[in-house]
Amino acid sequence: MAFGIKRDELEHWKQGVIDGKISFLTHYWVDDRFPGCSTVTKVGCCDLEKLVSWGRQYGLQPEWLDLRGDYPHFDLFGERQRAILRQEGQLEQLNKLQNKKA
């Protein structure tokens, strides 16, 4: 279950994906398959070669891509999520959610 994002944030991410940009969207997420994880970052791009190449630098495998629907993306969570967001200069997304908890 996803929550904690605004419609305009989602639309901005979708447009970035459609435009062929590497786009990040972080939101709260609850899934019993991943205990201890309360957020997920979707990293999407409709240019699959570009997205696979981007993921490869972080050890992400092409078979991990979520190709359902119109917005291909990797799902990042846990320590890998934090590490990649840090390296990409995208920590404000994760920090925004953590600050709301307080």
SSE layout and pairing:
Blueprint: E1 2-3, H1 7-18, E2 23-29, E3 39-44, H2 48-56, E4 73-76, H3 78-88, H4 91-101
Antiparallel strand pairs: 1-2, 2-3, 3-4
What does this structure look like?
- This protein is α+β, with helices and mostly antiparallel strands.
- Helix content is 42%, strand content 19%.
- It has one domain.
- The chain has helices at 7-18, 48-56, 78-88, 91-101, and strands at residues 2-3, 23-29, 39-44, 73-76.
- It has a 4-stranded antiparallel sheet.
- The relative contact order is 0.19.
- The model has no long low-confidence stretch (mean pLDDT 88).
- It comes from Planococcus antarcticus DSM 14505.
- This is YneQ.
Oligomer class: single chain
Distance between the termini: 21 Å
Give the CA-based shape: globular
How many strand elements? 4
Summed over residues and divided by their number, the pLDDT gives a mean of 88
Report the sheet-strand fraction.
Answer: 15-25%
Stretches with pLDDT under 50, minimum 5 residues: none
Summarize the structure.
This is YneQ. By secondary structure, the chain is an alpha+beta fold.
